[in-house]
Structures are given as structure tokens and as C-alpha cells.
Write a structure and sequence with these properties.
The complex is a heterodimer of chains A (540) and B (308). Chain A is α+β, with helices and mostly antiparallel strands and 540 residues long. Helices cover 29% and strands 21% of the residues of chain A. In chain A, strands 1, 8, 9, 10, 11, 12, 13, 14, 15, 16, 17 and 18 form a 12-stranded mixed sheet that branches. Chain A has a 4-stranded antiparallel sheet with strand order 4-5-7-6, covered by helices on one side. Chain A has a two-stranded antiparallel ribbon with strand order 2-3. Chain B has one domain: Orthogonal Bundle (MetI-like fold), CATH 1.10.3720. Chain B contains 11 helices and no strands. The longest helix of chain B is centred in the last third of the chain and has 38 residues. Classes of the chains: A alpha+beta (540), B mainly alpha (308).
């Protein structure tokens, strides 16, 4: 009897441990975020602390800049710290303050100098020459030169690296250090958005021949004092920073939280000073809180409802027209966005793109009878039954429920299928389904969406859309050096997409954040991670 | 255990004499009177009475829900989204402008039918298998029980998640999960009772009479199992409600816009600061019905013990 029960226990253990192992997904066990013990004890051997000079040995800034205040930011924990592989808001946010970009994108979506103080572009748009800032040093004391820029971008564009930037920079013919502080980029084809590409989230300048890019050796406004994964990242002002009078803060502490509600509670309780990427609910709950300033920034981030246009029922454009006529866009905006953000116009070219954005073509207004008639003409006189696939993140399940309700009126019976993102995007299922909702992130310029989402042979052409006129317009917009021609092409594209496009863009999101009012000068960016703390100052 | 053996003797089940006292009913009494007596015995304790009332209340909601609910299940009133409880919307509205009270009322049918059907089918399979393995024994018993041990070794919710991960989320998958998860449990309970009964004289007698296997299983052994089975079924039912709600909350169960209470909690969670009522009422509904059915199950157990 006893052996029997022992055998049973072992059997149970084996089965349980199998499942536990699967659940862990092979990830290393991570420590719980706790109060910081002695820094030396928390440093895992795999990631030793950057051997930067201790603050005490460094003389105070000779410029006489008075830095004061430590800003505490609550974010999700960092997973990646190598600039080439970072992607999330907090990862980019940390990197943006430890390293510098060659050029920066302003909150108004224009290009600003950073490590490159000026640049010239050749007539044909193929050669970019950058003059770099003088007297810049890395945190380890070595001087910054053109070679560091060359090394950084060669690393990022290496097709064998597997870095997400390899595709982005495939158009670069060569990069040369044409002087100590001068870099020349030669392109294969002209690219009017090349400066935006150079300010890609990953394009942070590292020291030439950096052996371990996770060691935080940047030129940026803050130095890493302590990094304890899953717990906190402590930054201290870089006294030798090349921008006069910046940073204005003494330090920045990035504290890691797993849960946004906890972040907001910490903000309320005075343990942190800045929370970004807030949900509308948490944002609204802070409205009457004294001493806290609420911030919002329009973004180009949107959800797209797309119908496959290469097979039934979507291969008849009248079906999509009927679906569009069935929408009450104002109600969707009110219900799903709770009045935040902007109503979309069925094209990825959003209001943030200023001159490129157009409201010339009117959107179809809800007309149930006309929609039913179109469906009947398309061969569905008794309506249509269709599955709507959506990831379970963000506001997408809610959008699906509202769509189901509105389309029921025009005789379209929608079966909502809410799936985890791993299922929706896994095995490229999202490229297969007929009707789906996909979230697209914010990009600094609209050409990206056209090239990867809507062109005939686009990599992520989820709607399998193929339209000759559209392709021509998109190619023109993406290559011409004549700004007026590009604006005209984008306008034509927006008209075309409203009239016969395979996508519905119901809304654009807003980026929301809250900061303690004692900090001034913080400007929230569309991509929260690129928000800049350099000009932020502490006021008593 | 002796009375079941006496009353269920073939040919012996005639309502001969009336019950001597209401508290000591015997099984010979005709159907409806029996139910009445049972209910009266059940309601003699306040806790059981409460459980019974809660259950009946939700049953009424499930059956007559569409006549009670003031709004449609997916009726979205954009201009009234996120309103607190009021005379117009008793439990307020959610962020999509849906009446929370109506959705809870209409969700009762969903959750009771899903948990109810699942439990009934699981009890049917569990009883059949339990009777068979308990009576036949041997290798059949060993193999099946080890398989069930393996299934039971896993936490129920984990097993349910694994199954749903393979089947894909839908109403039918949830039903199937309830059946797969609860059949082993029910069959083990039944089997343990069968093991204690099968050596009894009346079984031996039936075998010697040359009765068929199904006859012995269902006419001779089953009556002995019924009291334990009734309690087990009631408990399973309450856990099934919990399971359906949990799966809905985890987003792998019933799909939106179904008014599943667990799903409602999940959907309202994102806006809990602005409209807490949209989350608290469905959560309370789950709690109330699970507690109610548990009290009811306790009551059934008590009455059955008392009658013995």
C-alpha cells in the first residue's frame, strides 16, 4: 500500500512539473521587485554593473548648472537593454536617456539635431552628410567620433544580425567617416523619410567596437548608477553632457511595476512622479487629484478592421462598402474610445501627419437601407454570416462587440472570436482570416503603412489588397523629392481608400500620462518612450 | 445503508402505506409529494432554505429572463454609457452603454444552462463508468482509475485551460471541458460506494438469478449510490458555475458579447475606477449563486442523512 501511494505521488509530481515547466516557457526565474537591498548583492553575475566612474571622484560641473530634483518614473520592467533589440516603451525610454540619437524627432513630428548638429543632402537625395557635435564623451570617458556612428549603423544594418533594423536600413549603400566629426550616408534610392529612419528607436549611438552592448556606455544625459532587473534603474545626471544646461534634473529613477493600477496608486501616494501609457480609465480617475498634471498627446496609433479582398465575401468591393455604410462612427468613438483620440478616416494617414492628412473626401454616413441593397447586389440578399477575429488586448474586443451590434442592423451576423495575441498573430493567422482587427503602432511618417500593409506584394498585406492605381500613388509618394507631389499623392490615396479600400480605421488613439506638478517642461510624445526628460526641471 | 436494499427490491416498490411522519419519509411515496416533503425538510434549516430560495430565484431568472430584463442583451445606448445605478438602469450601464441589470438577468440562463447541462452529462457518464468499474473491477478498474488519477492530479482550472487551448474558445468547448473535468470526479465517488455495496447479499442474489449486467448496475446498485450521487451532483453544479465564470473571466470561455458573468467582470475590469458597478454586480451574482448552490448542496446532504 505504501509503495503504491509513493508511486502515485511521483507520478503526480512528474505530470505537474511538466506543466509547470511549460508554463514557465523556459524563461529564467526573475526576482520579485522588492525594496532595494545592498546594490552589490542584487547584481546578477551575468550583468555586472557598468564600471562608470563613481560620482564622488568627478568634480562638480564647471558650467555652474544647478541640477536638482530626482524624477521617479513608474514603468513596466525592461526585458531588453541592448539598443538594437529594445522595443517597448520603458526600454526605449531608458535607452533614450542613457544614449543619444543622431537626430531626434520632436513632439511636432519634425526632425531636430542631436548628436548631429547639422547636415546637408545632395541634389539627387542620395547622399547625406552629417556634422557631429564636438567635445562629446561617452560615459566611460572616451571621446565620441564619426567612427562610432559608422560602427553603430553598420551593426544595425547587418543583414545577418537578425535585428529589426536590418530591413529598414537595407537601402543604405555605404556609411563612411568622412572626417573626425563628419559622417556620410549614401543611399541606393532616394528616400524622403531617411532622417526619420535614422531616428528609429534602435538607432542609439554606441561606442565603436562595444563588446557588450548591454553595459549602458552611452553619451546620453544620464549615467547608469545601478540596474537591478525587475526592480529599478537608477540614473544620475551626466555632468559632461554636451547640451548646455541639460539635463536639469539631478537624477532619474525608473521603478519597475508589473501592474498599471499599482503605478497609479504609487503616483497618488507620492512614491513616483511620472506614469505614462495610461489607460483612459486610470487617466480619468486622476482628474481631481491635486498636485498632478495630466498630459495627452495625439498619436498615429490605430486599430484597423480589414476584410480580405482576394476571396469571398470580400472580393466583391460592395461588401466592404456595405460594412462601411453600416457604421455609426460617432457611436464607436464615444463607446470604444470614451471620447479620447480622434475619429479615423479609413486610411492609415492620420491627423498627426499634418500636411499629408486630408479631410476632403467625405466618409460614408450610416445608411442601413443602402447597405442592405449593396449586400443584396453583391449576392447576399439574406445577409451574411462571418467570423470577426480580434486580439484580446487594448480596446479591440470592445470594438468587435460594437461592430457586431451595428452590423446586425444591415443583416451581417458577426461571430466575435477574441484570441490571445499569440494566437492571433501566431503562425501568421492574422494574414489568413477574412475579417480581423489588427493594432498598428505609431510611426513618424505614413509611408511605412502603405508599403508594408497595402501595396500588392507588401509583407503584411493582411487584407490581400491589390490595386494598380494605389501602388502607383504609394510609389510616387515614397520616392518623389517634390513635397507638393507627395502631398497630392497622399490626398489621392486617402480618397481611394475611402472609396474602395479594404480597411476601416475607426479611430486614432491618444497617448495619456500623468506627472507630479513639481516637475515642469515635460512634453509627452506619441510614442511615450521617446519622451524627453532633458529639459524637465524640478520646481519646489 | 439497509433501507435502499429493502425498498428497491424488484417488484417491491409500491406505495403501500402513507408516511408516518413528514420528517421520516420513505421512498415509497409518489413523486410530487416526495419532492414536497423533501423541500420541507430542506427548508427546516435557515441556511438550506436560503440556498434553496437563491437557487429558485436564479432559476426563475434563467427561465423568464427575457420577460424580466428591461433592455436587450447587447443593446448599446451610446448616450447612456457608463451611468451609475439609477431608477432607469438599476445596476448602471457599462462602458458600451449596455444595461448591467439586464445582462445579469439574461446571463443567468447562459451560466445555469451551461453549468447544468455540463453537470448532468458529467454525472451521467461518471455514474455509468463508476458503476461499471466498481462492479467489474480487475484490470478495467485499474487502467481507468489510473487515467482518472492522472487527470485529477492536475489542478482543475489548469486542465480546463489546456483543453480550451486545444479546442478553441466557444460555448461547446466549455461544455466539453466541464464534462471531461467532472466525469472522473463523479465516477470515483460512485465507484467508492459501489465497492462497499457489491459484496452484499442482494447483489449476490441478483447474480445467481442470472440478471443481466445493466440490470444489476442500474436496478440493484444505483439506488444505493443515489444519496451520495445527489450531493456530489449538487456540489459539481456549483463548481461548474464557478468554472464557467472563471473561464469567462480568463477570456478563454464563452465569447463576447455573451452576457456571461465572468466575461462581464473581465470586460468591466478595465474601467473599474470609472464604473465599478459594471464589475461589482456580475461579480456579486457569481458569488451569490455559488454560495446559494453550495448551501443547497449542504442541505440536500443533511436531509439525506436525516432520512437515513
Amino acid at each position: 500500500m505504501q509503495t503504491k501511494s509513493i508511486l502515485k505521488a511521483i507520478f503526480t509530481l512528474v505530470i505537474l512539473s511538466t506543466f509547470l515547466l511549460q508554463a514557465c516557457g523556459g524563461q529564467p526565474a526573475t526576482p520579485e521587485p522588492t525594496q532595494p537591498p545592498a546594490p552589490a548583492a542584487t547584481q546578477p553575475p551575468a550583468e555586472p554593473q557598468q564600471p562608470s566612474q563613481p560620482a564622488s571622484t568627478e568634480p562638480p560641473a564647471p558650467s555652474g548648472v544647478e541640477r536638482k530634483g530626482v524624477l521617479r518614473v513608474a514603468t513596466q520592467p525592461l526585458v531588453q537593454v541592448d539598443p538594437a533589440t529594445i522595443s517597448s516603451d520603458p526600454e526605449v525610454f531608458a535607452a533614450n536617456h542613457i544614449y543619444d540619437y543622431l537626430v531626434d524627432v520632436t513632439p511636432q513630428n519634425t526632425i531636430a539635431p542631436r548628436l548631429a548638429k547639422s547636415w546637408t543632402v545632395s541634389e539627387d537625395g542620395l547622399v547625406y552628410t552629417f556634422q557631429l557635435e564636438e567635445g562629446v564623451t561617452f560615459h566611460d570617458g572616451t571621446p565620441f567620433t564619426a567612427k562610432d556612428v559608422v560602427w553603430t549603423f553598420d551593426r544595425l544594418r547587418n543583414p545577418d544580425s537578425g535585428y529589426p533594423t536590418a530591413d529598414l536600413y537595407a537601402n543604405i549603400e555605404s556609411i563612411e567617416a568622412s572626417g573626425d566629426l563628419e559622417v556620410t550616408f549614401k543611399l541606393k534610392q532616394s528616400n524622403p523619410f531617411f532622417l526619420f529612419d535614422l531616428s528609429d528607436n534602435h538607432a542609439l549611438i554606441l561606442k565603436e567596437n562595444t563588446a557588450d552592448p548591454t553595459q549602458f556606455n552611452g553619451t546620453g544625459p544620464f549615467k547608469v548608477v545601478e540596474y537591478s532587473p525587475e526592480d529599478r534603474l537608477i540614473l544620475q545626471a551626466n555632468e559632461a553632457y554636451f547640451v548646455e544646461g541639460q539635463p536639469k534634473l539631478e537624477g532619474v529613477e525608473i521603478l519597475f511595476f508589473a501592474d498599471q493600477t499599482a503605478m497609479v496608486d504609487a503616483l497618488r501616494g507620492g512614491q513616483v512622479d511620472l506614469v505614462m501609457a495610461l489607460s483612459t480609465d486610470l487617466y480619468s480617475s486622476l482628474k481631481n487629484e491635486s498636485g498632478i498634471t495630466l498630459l495627452d498627446a495625439p498619436t498615429n496609433q490605430f486599430d484597423v478592421v480589414r476584410l480580405r479582398s482576394d476571396r469571398a465575401p470580400g472580393n466583391d468591393p460592395r461588401v466592404m462598402q456595405a460594412l462601411k455604410l453600416g457604421l455609426d462612427r460617432q457611436a464607436i468613438y464615444q463607446l470604444v474610445m470614451a471620447g479620447f483620440g480622434r475619429i479615423g478616416r479609413d486610411s492609415p494617414i492620420g491627423p498627426m501627419y499634418a500636411a499629408y492628412y486630408s479631410e476632403e473626401t467625405p466618409l460614408p454616413i450610416r445608411d442601413v437601407e443602402a447597405a442592405k441593397k449593396l449586400l443584396a447586389e453583391a449576392g447576399y440578399p439574406n445577409g451574411l454570416k462571418i467570423d470577426l477575429h480580434t486580439p484580446d488586448t487594448g480596446d479591440r474586443p470592445e470594438l468587435a462587440v460594437v461592430l457586431k451590434n451595428q452590423w446586425a442592423d444591415i443583416g451581417v451576423d458577426v461571430n466575435v472570436m477574441v484570441e490571445p495575441e499569440s494566437v492571433y498573430y501566431g503562425d501568421n493567422g492574422w494574414l489568413e482570416v477574412d475579417l480581423g482587427i489588427t493594432g498598428w503602432g505609431s510611426r513618424p511618417y505614413p509611408q511605412f503603412y502603405l508599403d508594408v500593409m497595402l501595396k500588392c506584394n507588401a509583407k503584411w498585406n493582411e487584407s490581400h489588397f491589390c490595386d494598380e492605381e494605389f501602388d502607383q500613388l504609394a510609389t510616387t509618394a515614397g520616392t518623389t523629392l517634390d513635397e507638393a507631389e507627395r502631398v497630392a499623392a497622399y490626398k489621392a490615396i486617402q480618397k481611394l481608400l475611402i472609396e474602395r479600400g479594404p480597411i476601416i480605421v475607426p479611430y486614432f488613439y491618444t497617448q495619456l500620462a500623468a506627472i507630479r506638478s513639481t516637475f515642469q517642461g515635460f512634453v509627452l510624445k506619441s510614442f511615450a518612450g521617446r519622451s524627453d526628460l532633458r529639459p524637465v526641471s524640478f520646481v519646489e | 445503508m439497509s433501507f435502499e436494499a429493502d425498498v428497491r427490491r424488484p417488484g417491491g416498490s409500491v406505495d403501500g402505506q402513507p408516511p408516518s411522519t413528514p420528517t421520516q419519509p420513505t421512498i415509497q411515496i409518489a413523486g410530487w409529494t416526495r419532492v414536497g416533503i423533501f423541500v420541507r425538510a430542506l427548508c427546516s434549516k435557515p441556511a438550506s432554505a436560503l440556498g434553496f430560495v437563491i437557487f429558485v430565484l436564479f432559476l426563475v431568472l434563467a427561465i423568464f429572463g427575457p420577460f424580466i430584463a428591461p433592455y436587450g442583451v447587447n443593446e448599446q445606448i451610446a448616450s447612456e454609457a457608463g451611468q451609475p445605478p439609477s431608477a432607469r438602469h438599476w445596476f448602471g450601464t457599462d462602458n458600451l452603454g449596455r444595461d448591467v441589470f439586464s445582462r445579469i438577468v439574461l446571463g443567468a440562463r447562459e451560466i445555469l444552462s451551461l453549468a447544468g447541462f455540463g453537470t448532468v452529462i458529467a454525472v451521467f457518464f461518471g455514474t455509468t463508468l463508476g458503476l461499471a468499474v466498481g462492479y467489474i473491477g480487475g484490470w478495467f478498474d485499474e487502467i481507468l482509475m489510473r487515467i482518472f488519477d492522472g487527470l485529477l492530479a492536475m489542478p482543475l482550472l489548469l486542465l480546463a485551460l489546456l483543453l480550451l487551448g486545444t479546442l478553441g474558445p466557444s460555448k461547446n468547448s466549455v461544455l466539453l471541458v466541464i464534462i471531461i473535468v467532472y466525469t472522473p470526479i463523479v465516477s470515483r465517488v460512485v465507484r467508492s460506494v459501489v465497492l462497499s455495496v457489491r459484496q452484499r447479499g442482494f447483489i449476490e442474489a441478483a447474480r445467481l438469478r442470472g440478471e443481466s449486467l445493466p440490470y444489476i448496475l442500474f436496478r440493484e446498485i444505483l439506488p444505493s449510490v443515489l444519496p451520495a450521487l445527489a450531493v456530489e451532483a449538487a456540489l459539481r453544479f456549483s463548481y461548474a458555475i464557478f468554472l464557467v465564470a472563471s473561464l469567462g473571466f480568463l477570456g478563454v470561455g464563452v465569447q463576447p458579447p455573451s452576457p456571461d458573468w465572468g466575461l462581464m467582470v473581465r470586460e468591466a475590469r478595465n474601467n473599474v475606477n470609472q464604473m465599478p458597478w459594471a464589475m461589482y454586480y456580475p461579480a456579486a451574482a457569481i458569488a451569490v449563486i455559488v454560495i446559494g448552490v453550495n448551501l443547497l448542496a449542504d442541505g440536500i446532504k443533511r436531509v439525506l442523512l436525516e432520512t437515513k
